[in-house]
Amino acid sequence: MADTINSQFSSCIGVVGLGFVGLTLAIAAADSGYTVYGTEVNPKILALLKENHAHFHETGLDALIQKHNGKNFFSSEKFPSDEKFDAFIITVGTPLLTGTYEPNFGYIRQAVQSIREVYDGSQLVILRSTVSVSTTRNVIIPFLQSMCGKPDVLVSMCPERTVEGRAIEELTHLPQIISGNNEKALAFAEKIFTRITTSVLRAKSLEEAELAKLFCNTYRDIYFAVGNAFCLSAQTFGIDGIDVIRLANEGYSRADIAVPGFVAGPCLEKDAYILAHNMKECPAKDFILSGRKINSSLEDAVCDWVRNNVKGKTIALSGMAFKGRPETSDLRGSPSVNIARKLYAMGCELRLHDFAAYIDEMDALGLGRAFETIHETCEGADALLILNNHEKYLGLTREDLGNENITVLDSWQVCKKIKGTHTLGNMLLNTKEAC
Questions:
Q1: Whether 57 contacts 35, CB under 8 Å
Q2: Three-state SS for 163?
Q3: Long-range contact list for 189-193, CB < 8 A, 24+ apart?
């Protein structure tokens, strides 16, 4: 089998979708010696790539784009028809259907459809997207069979596992989970990823690989949900939730309760729903979804805090990206954006800021003006909400804010030099109604 794979493999890979997952993987593959063609329907992303820039912040990525662009990495709207491809990797996201908790597989179907002109059924198709269990076997494989007119297609589910901010490093060091609909597909996927990373893990089935990704993200969601639930419950007893969690953890190896905070991003905000999508009704399903409900409830709790504790209507929000460490510019799945939308609906005038997110992307939200500095953001504001944990908050003082009287909610307790802030641990203690 290995000899057959080696004789057929010419090291040319097509990547469908050059978002965060697709672009970082494409560049890591190019840096590992592959010839990589990436397709993207967003003209802004393609224009930036021509200038050797990614459309998001990721440490080390722009330098690698410049190194490989036009040499063994190429980006365009369509794959070239005269190139012989060995494999195609589908990397587009799986959002939830608007107004529901059902996964929307429309983008994946469009991505698979986009390889029609260069796919003949002999190439390996790797699904990198997060999907509900059995989607690869019951949706992707029949779609490919119909498209090429052949029953024996090669398909792998190889889930993406990187964290934004460290994706290039993790792609080359984390074990990559691989699977296949048959032994040839499995061996093919193993050959591809062995060149990129130090180790691969063989899943016994496509479904096992799908579940492994969903388990990882849902576990993190539930882990943080426990900390958030404990924090909110402590406040019903008049006790600071963060203080008691730290007391419980200190020097006690059997307690590792998460420090309370927002849980979001383009994966964690939805993967519990994708895991539960076609799961039979059972206590496990209820448990999984209850954790997601706890985490999302923090957004409403912050809005209630503003309603009950801030006299004015001008609110500064800093930390619009969904996380601060590792640094990212990504606004997708950000609780900060969700909070901004809810405050906007309450009639608040919003002023937005982030240390990494792009001004034009924050302005494009249509929720308020974005500012370059936190000093400008706080001018005339009645309250400042610190909504992620970027390290630049550590050194901030009230003088840096330029507003001595501004009320501050430091949701991550990162503003160490600003006295008299409110936190998630005591947020509900002084409001009219506890949770």
A1: no
A2: coil
A3: 189/124, 189/126, 189/156, 189/158, 191/5, 191/6, 191/9, 192/13, 192/29, 192/87, 192/124, 192/126, 193/158
Angstrom CA distances, 1 to 181, 183, 276, stand at 15, 8, 37
Note whether 423 and 309 are within 8 A (CB).
no
Crossing angle between the packed helical segments 183-196 and 20-31, to the nearest 10 degrees? 80
Chain centre distance of CA 347: 29
pLDDT in tens, 118-132: 999 999 999 999 999
> Does residue 33 come out as left (phi exceeding 0), alpha (psi in the -120 to 50 range) or beta?
left
Nearest to 427 by CA among 248, 263, 261, 269: 261
Q: What share of the chain is helix, strand, coil (3-state, %, to 5)?
A: 45, 15, 45
pLDDT (tens digit, 9 = 90+) per residue, 351-409? Answer: 999 999 999 999 999 999 999 999 999 999 999 999 999 999 999 999 999 988 899 99
Tell me which DSSP letter residue 202 carries: E
Nearest to 343 by CA among 312, 373, 374, 372: 312
pTM: predicted TM-score of the whole model, two decimal places: 0.88
Query: What do you get for the CA distance between the two ends of the chain, in Å?
Result: 60
- The three-class DSSP label of residue 373 is coil
